[in-house]
């Protein structure tokens, strides 16, 4: 499902995790269009916004062809690894998580460096 609509960028807010929250305003929507928007809440996708120039069919096709690894999993692999390490650390929180994370990631790095054949 996708939404293609005219809209106005109304504002943005910087967040502490360095992401940005964008706010758009559209013209009036039908009940069906609003239902489509409701179904897409909390999904991951692509946002393409441009000024007053009209979007052509080639651009729509190009956007539809973009593949993102994050469609099914909105977290990067490194974020997932960090979260898993945090959960393991929480089972026996010895020292600080920062120390634990550094130790474990270094152990993983050394493990894979040992597999390199020069």
Q: Compute the gyration radius: what is it?
A: 21 Å
**Biggest sheet, strands in spatial order?**
1-2
Q: Helix count?
A: 4
Provide mean pLDDT, rounded. 86
* Anisotropy-based shape: elongated
Name the assembly state: single chain
Spatial gap, N to C terminus? 48 Å
Which percent bin holds the helix content? 40-55%
Q: What proportion strand?
A: 5-15%
Number of strands: 2
> Structurally, how many domains make up the residues?
2
Q: Kindly name the structural category.
A: alpha+beta
- Outline the biggest β-sheet: 2 strands, antiparallel
Order of helices and strands: EEHHHH
Q: List low-confidence stretches.
A: none
Keywords for this entry:
118 residues; alpha+beta; two-stranded antiparallel ribbon; single chain; 2 strands
Description:
The protein is of the alpha+beta class. It folds into two domains: 59 residues, no CATH class; 37 residues. Strands 1-2 form a two-stranded antiparallel ribbon. Strand 1 and strand 2 form a beta hairpin. The longest helix is centred in the last third of the chain and has 17 residues. It is elongated and about 55 Å long.
Topology:
Elements: E1 7-14, E2 20-26, H1 31-40, H2 57-65, H3 77-91, H4 97-113
Antiparallel strand pairs: 1-2
Helix pairs in contact: 3-4
At a glance:
The protein has two domains: 7-65, no CATH class; 77-113.
